[in-house]
Amino acid sequence: MSENWNKRTQAVHGGIRRSQYNEVSEAIFLTQGFVYDSAEQAEARFIESGPDEFIYARYGNPTVSMFEQRIAALEGAEDAFATASGMAAVNGALTSVLKAGDHVVSAKALFGSCLYILENILARYGVEVTFVDGTDLDQWKAAIRPDTKAVFFESMSNPTLEVIDIRAVAELAHAVGAVVIVDNVFSTPVFSDAIKQGADVVVYSATKHIDGQGRALGGVIIGTTEFIRGTVEPYLKHTGGALSPFNAWIMLKGLETMALRVNAQADTAQRVAEALEDHPALERIMYPGLKSHSQNALVQAQLGGKGGTVLSLDIKGGKEAAFRFLNALTVPVISNNLGDAKSIATHPATTTHQRLSDAQKDELGITPGLIRLSIGLEDTEDLLTDISQALGASQL
After folding, report:
1. What is the pTM of this model?
2. Strands of 282-286's sheet in order across
3. Parallel, antiparallel, or unpaired for β 219-223 and 282-286?
């Protein structure tokens, strides 16, 4: 394995370990425990395990380790810890580093479950959280204090697709010694270089683009070996948020084709957004790849010009029109996932962000007419035809 390989090569070959059979496809080690040659070996392994030594599947597993090593190499990071889901990764990254009395600054435009952790769980244990408009650097400057322990944000927010300047926020946070934790799901491992841009810790829901085919849950926390093995691993191995070996194997297979899938999805998303930009049924369209998007310059610098695989449509007529749109679709399915090979349409106000108050939804721009549209791998013309007819049906 070479550290000089580019992302697509790392995504295919990174972290490979082969058994005595020299298999081509990675082996699935479906075992919860491991056998020791002697009592002395068992004792030694519990004192300190080597890089290819395992104790218990909750602590580590050869298949899971391959996934961890591959995604770390892909991100240009030292290490990673795989988790049972994306939310286990978010919770693990935050909770493992924080204690009562600590202060966190977070962007307020977040997925509903992320908000729940910050507003309810961390607050319950005495962690103070200050929320800011993630796109406003002046608010970050005002909120970050000398005692701030961590900052947290989605590099591209769910569902309104605001893009956060990773480099600028990281510079402010590092000035006071705060850890920069970035949920990078919408930016994807394909387009983002968050570690190089200043993130200390990157979190993914592997359920999304990494699997990308609707098969399995998974998550991962990526960072330095000191952080992953010294802070994250002790927390997660004792609290039980480990990724199953079978799901790790699915994620390994997903990584092999991820760049091909995600680039194709983003290209289609760009074409769909451009075609719908002035559609009369829309109050607005949100897609960072559009030249008209207020943060397109940042997208060019931070994501290589790619706007991602998701766009959001604010349909005229509110919830009733949005539901007519959803019910008229024949190609995209109605669900609440994203980053899938199948295009998926979601009504955030009644599903993923349903628990937010009306005031919170208004503040975040989650209107009754908002549809989050995750673009899949279908034919672009089929998608455009179907979306256009559904938009027409929304206004009847």
Report:
1. 0.95
2. 282-286, 310-315, 370-374, 344-346, 333-334
3. unpaired
Q: What is the pLDDT along the chain (396 residues), one digit of tens a residue?
A: 466 899 999 999 999 989 898 999 999 999 999 999 999 999 999 999 888 899 999 999 999 999 999 999 999 999 999 999 999 999 999 999 999 999 999 999 999 899 999 999 999 999 999 999 999 999 999 999 999 999 999 999 999 999 999 999 999 999 999 999 999 999 999 999 999 999 999 999 999 999 999 999 999 999 999 999 999 999 999 999 999 999 999 999 999 999 999 999 999 999 999 999 999 999 999 999 999 999 999 999 999 999 999 999 999 999 999 999 999 999 999 999 999 999 999 999 999 999 888 998 999 999 999 999 999 999 999 999 999 999 999 998
Residue 380: which of 290, 244, 271, 218 has the closest Cα?
271
At 304, the amino acid letter reads G
The contacts of residue 134 (CB under 8 Å, 6+ apart) are 107, 108, 109, 140, 153, 154, 157, 162, 164, 169
Of the candidates 297, 278, 279, the one whose C-alpha atom is nearest the C-alpha of residue 288 is 297
12 — phi, psi (to 5°)? -100, -40
Close Cβ partners of 20 (under 8 Å, ≥ 6 residues apart): none
- Whose tokens are 């749109």? That residue is 325
Tokens of 232: 């994250």
- Cα separation, 282 vs 277, in Å, equals 8
Segments in the chain forming alpha helices (H): 7-13, 39-47, 62-75, 86-95, 112-116, 122-124, 137-143, 166-174, 188-191, 225-227, 233-239, 245-276, 296-303, 318-328, 358-364, 380-394
Judge contact between 71 and 220, C-beta under 8 A: yes
How far separated are the first and last CA of the chain, in Å rounded? 58
- CA–CA distance, 211 with 256 (Å, rounded to integer): 10
Residue 71 token pair:
């995604």
Token duo for residue 10 = 């790392």
Which CA distances in Å does 139 have to 115, 183, 201? 18, 19, 22
Cis? peptide before 159, omega within 30° of 0:
yes
* Helix/strand/coil for 263: helix
DSSP character at residue 301: H
Counted residue by residue, the chain has a size of: 396
